[in-house]
UniProtKB/TrEMBL annotation:
GO terms for cellular component: cytosol. This is NADPH-dependent azoreductase Azr. The keyword Nucleotidyltransferase does not apply. Pfam families: FMN_red. Transmembrane segments: none annotated. The keyword Flavoprotein applies. It comes from the Bacteria.
Length: 204
């Protein structure tokens, strides 16, 4: 199984990327880690993706590389900063560019990072209106990393940071459980499709 972590801040050296690196580098701490043959981190701001205009041929030179990693993944983690109470434009653009052939029926762990005490709005926004047509399956255990500059750094700082690290491990464990459970569904969807399946390719 393969895990893809996508950090979607539009800034280099972002806190979103820091959280992604923490998960990637500390995977050995979690019991789920042995189940993944590969874990990849995509920092989207490094790829200079165009804003998609609906044309399949206008996704930019880097999209084939990104799309291949999305298609090969059995589970995804999407990490967004909270900007003005919203998920990042880069995340929403990424989800528009993904096709359901690459994403459908794959579990996704949503993570929002915030420099203050908010952070809930991006989770609500993505769950409400960003997963309809790509058919990603958000697991219930989303994460909100508040006061992100002070946590998940090189050394744990206090009880809250330690508790958060344990919560991250639990959420990663659950993501792996969903990845295992949904893999057979994707295979059946390919080999035993519903009659006239293409008529229902978009969510309601």
């Amino acid at each position: 199984m393969k895990l893809l972590i996508v950090s979607t801040s539009q800034r280099s050296n972002s806190q979103s990327a820091k959280v992604a690196r923490y998960i990637t580098e500390n995977r050995f701490l979690a019991p789920h880690s042995e189940g993944y043959e590969a874990i990849h981190h995509l920092e989207l701001c490094q790829f200079n993706l165009p804003f998609w205009d609906g044309d399949e041929d206008s996704k930019g030179e880097h999209w084939p590389e990104i799309a291949q990693k999305v298609a090969q993944a059995d589970a995804l983690i999407l990490i967004t900063p909270e900007w003005g109470g919203m998920a990042s434009p880069l995340l929403k653009n990424f989800l528009l560019m993904c096709s359901r052939q690459e994403t459908a029926h794959k579990p996704v762990l949503l993570i929002s990072v915030c420099s203050g005490i908010s952070g809930a709005y991006p989770i609500v926004e993505v769950k409400m209106n960003a997963l309809k047509n790509n058919k990603l399956v958000p697991i219930p255990d989303h994460l909100i990393i508040r006061n992100v500059e002070n946590v998940l750094n090189a050394t744990p700082q206090g009880t809250r940071d330690i508790d958060l690290r344990e919560r991250v491990q639990y959420s990663l464990f659950m993501l792996h459980q969903y990845a295992q459970a949904l893999a057979p569904i994707r295979q059946r969807h390919i080999h035993q499709p519903y009659p006239k399946q293409q008529e229902y390719c978009y969510g309601m």
